């Protein structure tokens, strides 16, 4: 499959990233290994996770996703060099002193992540959330140290708005520190406000790579959930209720029509729409079954016409 550079990093990826939030949550280690094997066998080469995944699941405390990935790397000699690995820091890890973007916590958290991942480097390290209590200079200085040590190779930020991203770039240049090279916003056919026009424009201007999360709106854009009765099909069902409205049904109707014309599924079309966006480098998407990975391949193969892209875009306005 064709690859593309992720912003101004040297990460060359197939423009679809696996979302590791499901590891240790909706799929166990054995199934995770099977899905990861299928993902790489299909030609994909980038995986996204975070230190906090999946602390929200009963009995978990965070670190489960990274641990499963680390065990997979150990069980598959040579695999670590075949994939680009993304993880994040900043979410609370069990106590108030284990969160945020202070240099103290970043330097500890990265060692914890490296240990769980059973690797000595992270390809792309994200600030998971803005930290109003820590200056950008302090955070970026920590990342500079880690880059000099070879423990991380590129840096990104998740959930920044245009003002915050602009200020981070300004402070980085003022203090001659590394700039964020990648942004990870919530963005899909339904949810577009978080990656608004100003933020898109700034990313394009600065050649900042963009990898989107909740690319299928927590599964709503798969077309699997069309009534309140459908919400019980998955552990993620209750988070999808907010999409069951006129706007959501307009989008599903448009997806249905184009999916039929493309001999595809709604999820494939929704991902193809993201891949076609100039401001998006790659969507992040999860899988819990091998056939989902086969669907990723289908999404990569779809070529939407300008008219189809327009119909989908307008359905979500």
From TrEMBL:
Q: Which domain of life is it from?
A: Bacteria
Task: Enumerate the Gene3D superfamilies for this protein.
Answer: NADP-dependent oxidoreductase domain
Could you tell me which CDD domains the record lists for this protein?
A: AKR_AKR9C1
User: Where do the NADP-dependent oxidoreductase domain residues begin and end?
Assistant: 15-314
Name the SUPFAM superfamilies on file.
Answer: NAD(P)-linked oxidoreductase
> Which InterPro entries does this one have?
AKR_Detox_Biosynth, NAD(P)_OxRdtase_dom_sf, NADP_OxRdtase_dom
Name of the molecule in the record: Aldo/keto reductase
